[in-house]
Amino acid sequence: MEKERSRGRVRKESTQGRSTDGDEAEFRRDRNQNRSMVQTQERECFSQEEEVSKENDV
Q: Using CA atoms, how far apart are residues 43 and 47, in angstroms rounded to an integer?
């Protein structure tokens, strides 16, 4: 019974703050994209360092 009442309250808040919810979701998506981009850049740097160390060995 208590759970049902709280769920209704949450739904009401979500309809009022829909615009902020959209911003939040967009912000989260951007942050995820940035994180994946950083990871790929780190990987590229790492592979370049490996190539340099191989050249130094010769």
A: 6
Amino acid identity of 51?
E
Rounded to whole angstroms, the Cα distance separating 21 from 29 reads: 12
**pLDDT tens column, 18-33:** 555 667 777 777 877 7
Task: Give the DSSP per-residue string, 21-58.
Answer: HHHHHHHHHHHHHHHHHHHHHHHHHHHHHHHHHHHHH-
CA distance 32 to 23: 14
Structure tokens at 22: 């959209």
